[in-house]
Specification:
globular; Trna Endonuclease, Chain: A, domain 1; 92 residues; five-stranded mixed sheet
């Protein structure tokens, strides 16, 4: 995921992988700092949505630096490659 974001022009500052299937990624876009929470699952399973606590946590991190909070869901295949398109949505 991080290499894909970098290839699209984002500067990735940090990411954590402390929970299986979930990552928080801090990056800089062209104009804004973005905080992205990624949920992943291996097909045929589908990634779950963010819990209320996860939404609050990522929004607080983003608001602290006047950034934006985003969530992404990624379905992986058996080789851990992307099986379906990744869905993104801004957390308001």
């Amino acid at each position: 995921m991080v290499s894909s974001l970098r290839s699209k022009g984002f500067t990735v500052f940090r990411w954590d992988e402390d929970a299986p299937g979930a990552n928080a990624i801090e990056m800089q876009g062209r104009k804004k700092r973005l905080f992205l929470h990624v949920k992943a699952a291996v097909a045929p399973d589908k990634p779950k949505g963010l819990t209320l606590e996860e939404k609050v946590r990522i929004k607080k991190r983003a608001e602290a630096v006047k950034g934006e909070a985003w969530a992404a869901r990624v379905t992986l295949d058996a080789t851990l490659g992307t099986a379906d398109s990744t869905t993104w949505r801004r957390i308001l």
